[in-house]
Amino acid sequence: MTPDSASNGDEIASENRTPDEMDLEELREEIETIDQEIVELIAQRTYVADTIAAVKDEKDLPTTDEKQEEQVMERAGQNAEQFDVDANLVKAIFRLLIELNKVEQRENR
Predict the structure, then answer these.
(1) How far apart are the first and last CA of the chain?
(2) Which residue ranges have biased composition labelled Basic and acidic residues (predicted)?
(3) Domain assignment of residue 18, yes or no
(4) Is the pTM here over 0.85, yes or no?
(5) Number of independent structural domains in the chain
(6) pLDDT in tens, the chain (109 residues)
(7) In a domain, 10, yes or no
């Protein structure tokens, strides 16, 4: 992540400091905050996926939509490149999220 892509001033402040200007505890606290934000975003994504599943069920649509999955994976790769993150890693994470959502959708049908 670059400083101009950070979501708040605290992140920018820590990113502009050199490692010797930050202590280990500060860095670990920052990781803890980021981890919490990641889990919050996964929860939001899961809620929306559950809502999509309800709509699919109501309209008697199949659980799997390969075209949509391909689009999600393409976006994941593009976003990874934008933030200079390993695209294979990001795609693996999204593949896992998609598979978990599909399992949950099948179990709730």
Answers:
(1) 39
(2) 59-73
(3) no
(4) no
(5) 1
(6) 444 444 444 555 566 777 777 789 999 999 999 999 999 999 999 999 999 999 999 999 998 999 999 999 999 999 999 999 999 999 999 999 999 998 888 787 7
(7) no
CATH of the domain at 41: 1.20.59.10
Q: What is the CA radius of gyration of the chain?
A: 18
Listing DSSP states for the chain in one string gives --GGG-SSHHHHHHHTS-GGGS-HHHHHHHHHHHHHHHHHHHHHHHHHHHHHHHHHHHTT--S--HHHHHHHHHHHHHHHHHTT--HHHHHHHHHHHHHHHHHHHHHH-
